[in-house]
TrEMBL record:
Residues 34-55 are annotated as: Disordered. Residues 47-122 form the Lipoyl-binding domain. The keyword Zinc does not apply. This is Biotin/lipoyl attachment domain-containing protein. It comes from Ruminiclostridium cellulolyticum (strain ATCC 35319 / DSM 5812 / JCM 6584 / H10). It comes from the Bacteria.
Length: 122
């Protein structure tokens, strides 16, 4: 049995693949086994997650088209921080509160998953 982590629509799954036969091509599809709910794989843990009130997380998987702020910028509640393309639509991601940008975890062209931390405001 070999174990692999694959991503389907941005969600990582741990799969086990059993080799059938001695070196000849496999004719049957491999058995896939999804991880148990609540199990965190290494691929998922590597992404920063939003947790504080000033954290701005990706609402859905997508690609960052444009970042409109930099670390140290003062922002107002409702100000556009970045543009996220998802499902062929451009979505404005706005500041949840007034404050200063303390962390910027994305750049133009980066793909993000739902819940991934993009910007922190303090």
């Amino acid at each position: 049995m070999s174990k692999y982590i694959i991503k389907v629509n941005g969600t990582p799954y741990e799969v086990e693949v059993e080799e059938v036969g001695g070196g000849r091509p496999i004719s049957a599809a491999p058995k896939l086994r999804a991880t148990k709910p609540g199990h965190t794989s290494a691929a998922k843990a590597a992404q920063p997650q939003a947790g504080k009130a000033g954290d701005v997380a990706a609402p859905m998987p997508g690609t960052v088209l444009k970042v409109k702020v930099a670390i140290g910028d003062e922002v107002k509640k409702g100000q556009v921080l970045l543009i996220l393309e998802a499902m062929k639509m451009e979505n404005e991601i706005v500041a949840p509160a007034d404050g200063k940008v303390t962390a910027l975890n994305v750049e133009a062209g980066k793909s993000v998953t739902a819940g991934e931390l993009m910007v922190s405001i303090a």
